[in-house]
Design a protein that fits this description.
The protein has 397 residues and is mostly beta strands. Helix content is 4%, strand content 45%. It has 2 domains: 12-162, Jelly Rolls, CATH 2.60.120; 175-393, Jelly Rolls, CATH 2.60.120. The protein has one helix at residues 3-16; strands at 28-32, 42-50, 57-62, 70-77, 82-89, 92-93, 111-118, 122-127, 130-136, 146-151, 153-162, 176-177, 179-180, 210-213, 230-233, 243-251, 257-264, 273-281, 292-301, 304-305, 308-314, 322-329, 333-338, 341-347, 357-362, 364-372, 375-378, 389-393. The two termini are 25 Å apart. Residues 193-205 have a biased composition (Acidic residues). Keywords: Lectin. InterPro entries: ConA-like_dom_sf (IPR013320), Galectin-like (IPR044156), Galectin_CRD (IPR001079).
Length: 397
């Protein structure tokens, strides 16, 4: 990525922060001054209809003090395809938040619903059934009394419920059942005649230095992309020692990052146990270095993130190019391969037999996710990766 592309990104970000909050201009569509006390687990669902000429609208959660502070301001900008989040304290707007790696689904002349879910640390915001972004509290959420909706919308109603999980489990967002191939776990076993595999030694004897894992190249299927974020499930206990989770896709032309969570359960709140959080970052400090990637690895166990690892490596993750990423459940660690080359390893922080879900989002086109069979392949110990630069990160956010 050249410096001119980076410069364009920075300029675009500056342009997006020139926000017109339309104070005193927008029509008030809905007002409720008697919200009951908000607490963690409270979910507000705003339902409505965007007018055919809708440019923008806003949802405000307000504290009725002398300055009428706004604890949360949500402003979808339909032509620009982003959602502004901000707060207003003592008459002054704070720093706006705009970025989201998730798709913008609001359209003119359509029904919509937006959910605001309250946790102890942040608001979680869901647009049309998909978790879209979060907003950390800047004011005390228990002091919120009023909700108002303004702008180019109509038929507004607000529902309030107490929930024990987020997001809501809707049929259109059910996890995809991940295909399992090979070994006793396979529902559709493949044979050597059906597969185009790498060449391996036919000697089937094993020793303590060998694990039964595989990096199979399968026959090409009809290519289509999964919608992101991707949520997939597999039978608990099927991703164990010697098995591989294989992810195939194509990088977008201007990638910034993508992440993969291998976790227990589908919910965002309460926070699930995450056995492996893997994030590939193509950030500003890698500008101009094609293929240079920062890999972040961590885990979320017992209510907190573990001490993470960061590795700066040269990979074949290049703009617009196809890739294959394999995560191996080895004896003591997850081993990470990109295009069949080992790039990193992450020692287990929990029993991998407990995990049953994979979550993927970011700047890729996702073409396939499969849990594969077993072939002899030499395991790699952590000391064999010592040539790569390792850094410790205290917390991943």
């Amino acid at each position: 990525m050249c410096w001119c592309i980076t410069r364009k990104r920075i300029q675009a970000k500056k342009e997006m922060t020139k926000i017109n909050y339309k104070e005193g201009v927008e029509n008030l569509v809905y007002l409720n001054r008697s919200l009951q006390l908000l607490s963690p687990g409270t979910c507000l669902t705003i339902l409505g209809y965007t007018k055919t000429y809708c440019e923008t609208f806003s949802i405000n959660l307000i504290i009725e003090n002398n300055s009428r502070d706004i604890a949360l301001h949500i402003r979808p900008q339909l032509p620009q395809h982003y959602v502004i989040r901000n707060s207003k304290i003592h008459g002054v707007w704070g720093e706006p938040e705009i970025a989201s790696p998730l798709p913008f689904t609001l359209k003119r002349g359509r029904d919509f619903f937006i959910q605001i879910f309250v946790t102890h640390r942040r608001f979680l915001i869901n647009v049309n059934g998909i978790h879209f972004c979060k907003f950390h509290h800047r004011l005390f959420y228990r002091e919120i009394e009023t909700i108002e909706v303004k702008g180019d919308v109509e038929d507004i109603s607000v529902e309030r419920v107490k929930a024990n999980h987020y997001p809501e489990h809707l049929p259109q967002n059910d996890p995809i059942k991940i295909r399992v191939e090979g070994s006793s776990f396979s529902e559709t076993p493949t044979t050597s005649e059906e597969s185009d595999t790498d060449e391996y030694d036919d000697d089937t004897s094993t020793s303590d230095n060998w694990l039964r894992i595989s990096l199979l190249r399968r026959p090409r299927r009809t290519i289509y992309a999964f919608k992101l974020p991707f949520l997939g499930t597999f039978k608990r206990g099927s991703f164990i020692n010697g098995r591989i989770l294989k992810i195939e896709g194509k990088m977008k032309l201007l990638p910034q990052s993508f992440l993969i969570n291998i976790q227990k359960g589908r919910d965002i709140w309460p926070h699930p146990m995450v056995a492996l959080h893997l994030r590939a970052d193509f950030s500003l400090h890698n500008a101009g270095l094609i293929g240079r990637t920062t890999l972040l690895r961590s885990a979320y166990i017992d209510g907190e993130w573990s001490i993470g690892k960061r590795t700066d490596v040269n990979t074949e993750l290049r703009p617009g190019k196809a890739f294959s990423l394999s995560i191996v459940a080895a004896k003591d660690s997850f081993q990470i391969y990109i295009n069949y080359s080992l790039v990193s390893e992450f020692l287990y922080r929990c029993d991998p037999a407990k995990i049953d879900t994979i979550y993927i989002q970011g700047d890729i086109r996702l073409l396939d996710v499969v849990l594969t069979g077993e072939v002899l392949f030499r395991s790699v110990e952590l000391k064999h990766i010592s040539a790569m630069t390792l850094f410790t990160v205290r917390k991943l956010t």
